[in-house]
TrEMBL record:
Residues 104-157 form the HicB-like antitoxin of toxin-antitoxin system domain. SUPFAM superfamilies: TTHA1013/TTHA0281-like (SSF143100). InterPro entries: HicB-like (IPR031807), TA_system_antitoxin (IPR051404), TTHA1013/TTHA0281-like (IPR035069). Pfam families: HicB_lk_antitox. PANTHER family: ANTITOXIN HICB, UPF0150 PROTEIN SSL0259. This is HicB-like antitoxin of toxin-antitoxin system domain-containing protein.
């Protein structure tokens, strides 16, 4: 996690991933905070919303420089580490993945409608009406995520960096 890295390493990580902090990311933070609030877990909600608000201010095009932005993010991460003894508040991705919106593709067929989720390979369904197909794909997505969660238990995970070279 970023909070366990030293300052130099954090700066490199932030420089390499600064494009990940955008308005959509801030919306994900708000959605997660709302979910925590609905679950009655109010402790991290105010903190999460405060961080999202501060990040939102920094996304403002009036920000002075990338160095200022990186310094701000570093301060946020260090504050998070101090508050949580080096542990991140958002440690359970289960809620995030099960409560996010997924883009689906819908196609009219002779039998009704075919529907699939491009972001989840192999996740597809159908229905005689558009509404039925959309309800069925929701069930298929939930099932897909449950199976993926079961398959990933006890499996080591890591991130790899991929560089695309356009010729």
């Amino acid at each position: 996690m970023l909070t366990s890295a030293d300052d130099e390493e954090l700066n490199k990580i932030l420089q390499a991933n600064q494009e990940l902090i955008d308005p959509e990311f801030l919306q994900v933070m708000e959605n997660y905070a709302t979910g925590l609030e609905q679950q009655g877990n109010n402790n991290p909600v105010a903190w999460l919303r405060n961080i999202a608000q501060q990040l939102g201010q920094f996304l403002n095009p009036q920000a002075r420089s990338i160095e200022e932005y990186q310094g701000f993010l570093l301060e946020v991460l260090q504050a998070e580490a101090e508050i949580n003894d080096g542990r991140a508040i958002i440690t359970d991705n289960d809620y995030y993945y099960k409560n996010m919106q997924y883009k689906v593709s819908l196609k009219k067929t002779e039998e009704g409608y075919a529907v699939w989720c491009p972001g989840l390979p192999g996740c597809a369904s159908q229905g005689t009406t558009k509404e039925e197909a959309l309800n069925n794909i929701q069930d298929a997505i939930v099932s897909y995520l449950e199976v993926a969660e079961e398959l990933n238990q006890g499996v080591e995970s890591c991130y790899v960096e991929v560089e695309l070279n356009h010729a």
